[in-house]
């Protein structure tokens, strides 16, 4: 069997935050300040996903940094009888795959106009298709799936965000179709006290046959000091492996799933050979394999030591496999899920 790399053999890993908020909506740092602070901590990519408005920042992209164009859409059904803190909501992010794609999909200014600073700032141009009527969103699976579908068709990478904060159980989010990925970790919600590390929610979707990736994000708003314990930056990140640090190379890698999600550990290589998956990582306290069935593996080091690699046999009935690397502090790094039928016999 030819060695099949699940993370590309060649290229370089680039550290990315794929969900962020600036002063264009309800964040406290300007896009420029965000770039400066994230670069200090080894990041090369930020997706600027301000609420309900898409503002490109091409002026921030240079040979050491890529600013991805994006937005986060809110879906809710708030009424006087159903205040916001009591009701389920849905948030999805959309990242433009092409830097020239600046037309906001399913544009809805009416409900959000007063809340989004960029709408009222003459320095920024919000671009939308003027030939189309304004898209009135509603908190229904039909509307949410329609927005996902239209965004995908218009060249966006779509993610489903923070189900715990959103008060959405599987009976709700299990009806959503077509997103590229979901947040296995939303660090901003974690700092607010929510249990927003979501491996179980990811498995629920996978076991229903939905094929999607997982990302870790900050969802940073920076309402607290950047060097304090409640800082919501720099805790959840996605490591993207690409040939070069250019906009299209990064988004092509996203579409292909050439990345992993992390809150700390690093994954160096991941490949299939002779019907076994091999993984190499930074120092790990344990490496766990989750499948689509009641079947798993867990690799441990000798007492007091760490491990840096593991290998395990692929079984045709496992449906899918995904791997989590835990460091000594308990922080995880999560691979995407890989469906076994796509891996065996190649």
Walkthrough of the structure:
The protein is built from six helices and 18 strands. It is of the alpha+beta class. The chain has two domains: 11-263, TIM Barrel (Alpha-Beta Barrel); 265-346, Sandwich (Immunoglobulin-like), CATH 2.60.40. Strands 2, 3, 4, 5, 6, 7, 8, 9, 10, 13, 14, 16, 17 and 18 form a 14-stranded mixed β-sheet that branches. It has a four-stranded antiparallel β-sheet with strand order 1-11-12-15, with no helix packed on it. Strand 11 (267-273) and strand 12 (276-284) form a beta hairpin. The longest helix has 13 residues, at 141-153.
Question: What characteristics describe this protein?
Answer:
346 residues, 6 helices, 4-stranded antiparallel beta sheet, 2 domains, 14-stranded mixed beta sheet, globular, alpha+beta, Immunoglobulin-like, 15% helix, TIM Barrel
Topology:
Blueprint: E1 4-5, E2 12-17, H1 31-40, E3 43-48, E4 66-75, E5 90-96, H2 141-153, E6 156-160, H3 170-173, E7 181-186, H4 187-191, H5 199-207, E8 213-217, E9 237-242, H6 247-256, E10 259-262, E11 267-273, E12 276-284, E13 286-291, E14 296-299, E15 307-313, E16 320-326, E17 332-334, E18 338-339
Parallel strand pairs: 2-3, 3-4, 6-7, 7-8
Antiparallel strand pairs: 1-11, 2-9, 4-5, 5-6, 9-10, 10-17, 11-12, 12-15, 13-14, 13-16, 16-17, 16-18
Summing up helix and strand content along with how strands pair, one would put the structural category as: alpha+beta
The CATH superfamily title of the largest domain: Metal-dependent hydrolases
What's the overall geometry? globular
Mean pLDDT: 94
Rg calc: 20 Å
How does the major sheet shape up? 14 strands, mixed
CATH class of the largest domain: Alpha Beta
Supply the number of structural domains: 2
User: What is the count of DSSP helices, taking H or I runs of 4+ residues?
Assistant: 6
Counting DSSP E segments of at least 2 residues, the number of strands comes to 18
Helix amount: 10-25%
Could you name the CATH topology of the largest domain? TIM Barrel
The CATH architecture of the largest domain would be: Alpha-Beta Barrel
Order of helices and strands: EEHEEEHEHEHHEEHEEEEEEEEE
Instruction: Give the percentage of residues in beta strands.
Output: 25-35%
From the N-terminal CA to the C-terminal CA, the straight-line distance is 6 Å
